[in-house]
Design a protein that fits this description.
By secondary structure, the protein is mainly β. It folds into 2 domains: 31 residues, no CATH class; 65 residues, Beta Barrel (OB fold (Dihydrolipoamide Acetyltransferase, E2P)). It has no helices and 8 strands. The strands form 2 sheets. Strands 6-5-4-7-8 form a 5-stranded antiparallel β-sheet, with no helix packed on it. Strand 1 and strand 2 form a beta hairpin.
């Protein structure tokens, strides 16, 4: 999984940003495995129009730093669940536990 890392501050971002939103630093591309663990999870029972019901979201702390908000296509994982984040062809992050 490709991420963008700011060498001036600890920000880790998904591709699409042109500079660091926190400090304006020039971002560099890094490849990561996407491995990480869930630090928070929630289930929306009334999601936005066009989204599946229920809609499961997780915050994943990546190995090597950074956190990602991802969809959980399976059940709702608990905090501490290990897995990996993958990007779909549409550019969405999915947690595979």
């Amino acid at each position: 999984m490709e991420v963008l890392v700011c060498p001036r501050c600890p920000r880790v971002l998904f591709p699409g940003a042109s500079c660091c939103p926190a400090c304006g630093g020039v971002l560099r591309s890094e490849t990561r495995t996407g491995a990480g663990r869930v630090v928070a999870a929630t289930e929306l029972t009334v999601p936005a129009a066009g989204w599946a019901n229920p809609h499961r979201l997780v915050v994943v702390e990546l190995e090597g730093g950074g956190r990602v908000l991802a969809l959980s296509p399976g059940g709702l994982p608990g905090a501490g669940t290990s897995g990996r984040v993958e990007r779909s062809p549409e550019g969405l992050a999915h947690f595979i536990g």
